[in-house]
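Researcher: Quick one. two chains, 663 residues in total.
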Amino acid sequence: MALALGPKLGPDIRANDLSVPDRDMHIYLPIAEMSANVLLFLGMGWAVGFLSGLFGVGGGFLMTPLLIFSGIPAAVAVGTGAAQIVAASVSGAIAQYRRNNVDVKMGLVLLLGGIFGSVIGVQIVKILRKAGQFDLVLALGYVTFLGVIGALMLIESLSTIQKVRGGIAVSARRPGQHSWIHGLPLKMRFHRSKLYISAVPPLMIGAFVGFLAAIMGAGGGFIMVPAMIYLLRVPTNVVVGTSLFQIVFVTAVTTVLHATENRGVDVVLALLLIISGVVGAQFGATAGSKLKGEQLRFLLAALVLLVCFRVAWDIVVTPDDLYSIQPPFGGR
Amino acid sequence: MPSRLWRFLVCLGLAAGLVAGAAVVAPRFVLHDRAEARIAGQGQKRKEGQGRRKDQQPAPKTAPATPAEPPGPPRPVAVPEPPKSPLDSLPPEKVEADVSTRSIAVTSGFTGTEIIVFGSVDNSRQPSAESGYYDVAVVVEGTPEPLVARKKSNVGGLWINTAAASFDSVPSYYAVTSTRPIEEVADASILEDNAIGLDNVRLRPSAATSGSLSAAELTDYESAVVRLKKEDELYLRDDYGVAFIGRSLFRSSIELPAHVPVGPLTASVYLFRDGALLSKFSTRVRLEREGVELLLYRFSVRQPFLYGLFAVVVAVGAGLLGSMSFRRLSQ
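Model:
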């Protein structure tokens, strides 16, 4: 798996810059086969962990580009990122669970779909990597989904913030609103979410997110959260906890798949990211409980759009070198 | 409140238990012979690949498994000049060399290293170290590995990989250093025959690639491979890196960066006089993982599935431990 962030960040080039300045603070990563600055990766883990706790996203959509940017081979960045998300989400999920913010039943339904989607996604990744087009598809996928979701969330959160300022009462639950979703079979009662809806939409959302998780190397929270809010109408406070709950298990499956298929999980690197990520997630969860839902959504939207522009920039701007080199698929 | 927490923990515990159970049921994961054989098989394949290459260098590359091989008989390629002085009645020159570190351990503290390649000229006719009578080139080459080079072009505003060339064998690492710029030392044909210099690195395109691409296209890809490897500091060149210390003794230092691909390296020393290759000598450097690095790497190669589960257990364990201890601290 590789994330195309332009020629400089491509999977072929392992930046050596980070190993030069202070060699005492370095550790050799056995799977990535490079020496890494301990402080840099601790800081990176903390920052992504903080955002994970704050927004209820796995943080993979940030972690994967950041790791590749620091010179980690793309396959290792994706696999190790998944392992890191497991840990960051476990602590975040527990923090949410204690606040009674997890709809376990909803989470399990989403998970079922997620595993199905992840398995299909891994097969498609294999085909694309063989054709040498995975980087491009990955970048286009990031631009499309981050762009659409970021823009939608930005508009929605801004209008909500304005309404709140204007004194109009806004309720996260919108009873009485019926859509095509309510006409589907297999209805289930989700007590915690105060919903009585068909199991088909959560299953489909879960599968879609699992599929994207396998392709993009992200937990999928950045898609799960808005999908649950806007499609399923799950209350915002339950959304974060439930998506974290589902992310823990989907990324666990993804980690094992990447270790098996790509030999892309570096435990030493993962531990660095986990140790700092766990601490960051706790700070994030605390900070998140002090912010209002629409403010959280506004911040997340801004972040999502920022990453979207960064990825788009790299596939549009003329690369420094038209050529790139990579180990052939399956070999290292 | 506590009951909900318990249910959640039971969920996680169940998953962790499954994983732990699998690890207990299959305790063979530590050192597994079948996987060992597979790794050995891969090495064998590489060796065969090397053997098929034309212009094969003699002894060292065919027997990489034997660490302490007897130094192969150096071949004097050109006959020395006809005798003019008493010195010239000496037998032909031979070059012999060794490396400061024959075995480099890649451990958690590995941040790259420097090896010294030193050697001497037997029957040196050189009056002094500064005379510049001989030229020496030192080449350190990493294990050959397959590689794909891709070329982007602009399709509707997006930069897309539209063409590719695959190589069966490309040296993972290549460093060349000499007493003066290698082009001044000998003719291009001699350098090419012995794969000396970044322009002469042996890149073997796959059959499909050499069949479908024109010679000019292939050259573009080959120069791109060398250029990108150079940018990555895996292909190095130092024009004045070899220095004579006495009439016959010389030394050079070669930088191995932290991301040098792990595997055996070959160090070759070439002795030139007036553009003629007088003698050459090759030796090997072992670059191997050691300690925890080796254990983890082996685990990940031999039991990738269990290694993946292990990674998940580590992640879940670290995540839970972290959150619990953090809660204790904040209470």
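The first strand of chain A starts at residue 26 and ends at 29.
Researcher: Thanks, that's what I needed.
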